[in-house]
């Protein structure tokens, strides 16, 4: 379980990006983090694993207080937190398999990582993960030969290669077309539920979040202004998060037959599909 308590981030400029944010994510729950640009979404995700240092508050992963760890303990703790990036963050000249195995760099010696010689158990697990994300036939391809959707699948496999206890995902569909975006969101949510992983997805695409996540957190100007199921994301809630807009002209019912859900979606999101 992830537990965030009164998290605050104030920059040297005096700008306060997070203003006492508190929430928890139990095992197996997939949470969508939404809000306008500048609301603090990326800052929040990066404060959880301390890529950005919080000014105040606590972040617990199960019983471990991430915010109180020293440098060495933090490095070990980060092995337990998988991160999937918007721009994929792959090493383009390396193969798909080598990129997936980089998820084990925190567990092997310097010489093993330098020579890229990983234990057989790690290699076997990487092959199994590539099979799970639908890339078993691409293991030897260079990363720069893949499409955007394939690269994101490699990023998912790499994060899972860590055996994480928490998954943080930053805009996984921002550079993907609508069909690929749905495929990637479906894959992420299925895998997280299979592995009972608590997961936070920072996402601009509100309809996509509504269709796939279990719960939505809405940030506005560094404050948590909504925490609830997708079905409660009403026009008034959207106005609270994003500001005034005629949301009534943007809503409709759409049945997602592929994953068995009926989701009431917004036909136009505050951020366009890309």
UniProtKB/TrEMBL annotation:
Keywords: ATP-binding, Cell membrane, Membrane, Nucleotide-binding, Translocase, Transport. GO terms for molecular function: ATP binding. SMART domains: AAA (SM00382). InterPro entries: AAA+_ATPase, ABC_transporter-like_ATP-bd, ABC_transporter-like_CS, ABC_transpr_PhnC, MetN_ABC_transporter-like, P-loop_NTPase. Residues 2-246 form the ABC transporter domain. This is Phosphonate ABC transporter ATP-binding protein. It comes from Sneathiella sedimenti. The lineage of its organism: Bacteria, Pseudomonadati, Pseudomonadota, Alphaproteobacteria, Sneathiellales.
């Amino acid at each position: 379980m992830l537990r965030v308590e009164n998290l605050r981030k104030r920059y040297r400029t005096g700008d306060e990006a997070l203003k006492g944010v508190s929430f928890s994510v139990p095992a197996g729950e997939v949470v969508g983090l939404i809000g306008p640009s500048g609301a603090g979404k990326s800052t929040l995700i990066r404060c959880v694993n301390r890529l950005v240092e919080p000014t105040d508050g606590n972040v617990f992963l199960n019983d471990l207080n991430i915010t109180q760890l020293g440098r060495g303990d933090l490095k070990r703790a980060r092995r337990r937190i998988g991160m999937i990036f918007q721009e994929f963050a792959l090493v383009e000249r390396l193969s798909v398999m080598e990129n997936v195995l980089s998820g084990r760099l925190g567990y092997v010696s310097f010489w093993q990582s330098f020579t890229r010689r990983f234990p057989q158990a790690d290699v076997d697990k990487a092959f199994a993960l590539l099979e799970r994300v639908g890339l078993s036939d691409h293991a030897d391809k260079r990363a720069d030969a893949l499409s955007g959707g394939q690269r994101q699948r490699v990023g998912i496999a790499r994060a899972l290669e860590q055996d994480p206890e928490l998954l943080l995902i930053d805009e996984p569909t921002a550079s993907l077309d609508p069909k690929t975006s749905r495929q990637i969101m479906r894959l992420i949510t299925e895998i997280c539920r299979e592995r009972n992983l608590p997961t936070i997805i920072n996402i601009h695409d509100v309809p996509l979040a509504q269709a796939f996540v279990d719960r939505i957190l809405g940030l506005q100007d560094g404050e948590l202004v909504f925490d609830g199921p997708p079905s409660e994301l009403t026009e008034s809630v959207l106005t609270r998060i994003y500001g005034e807009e005629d949301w009534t002209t943007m809503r409709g019912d759409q049945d997602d037959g592929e994953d068995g859900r009926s989701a009431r979606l917004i036909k136009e999101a505050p951020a366009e599909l890309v």
